[in-house]
Amino acid sequence: MENLPNCPQCNSEYVYSDGTALICPECNHEFQAEDVAEKVYKDANGNVLVDGDTVIVIQDLKVKGASSSIKKGTKVKNIRLVEPEDGVHDISCKIPGFGAMMLKTSIVKKG
């Protein structure tokens, strides 16, 4: 059985091929397999990031509701890369002393 990508419009897994295009039976969206490219996440220096990487914060970050900020040089282990809901923050992680946070790839470097 072919390993076809999910529909980029509705994320349905029931996509089928008609020979020239891929079709989603749930939303009737037609697309090419090349249109569904894997997103590449890069840090501030252009290094490719993957789930589980350790990164270092490259600037001080103010945190709403916290009495202190995340200092430049803070090491964050075991990051998880996510599709940003707000269009900006694409790293989900836990920062010691702060808990669960969302960060931008542009403010970290691979550690």
UniProtKB/TrEMBL annotation:
Give the Protein YjdM C-terminal domain ranges: 42-110
For this protein, the record's Pfam families field holds:
YjdM, Zn_Ribbon_YjdM
NCBIfam families given for it? phnA
InterPro entries named in the record: YjdM, YjdM_C, YjdM_N
Transmembrane residues, as ranges?
none
Stated name of the protein: Alkylphosphonate utilization operon protein PhnA
Q: Which Gene3D superfamilies does this one have?
A: 2.20.25.10, SH3 Domains
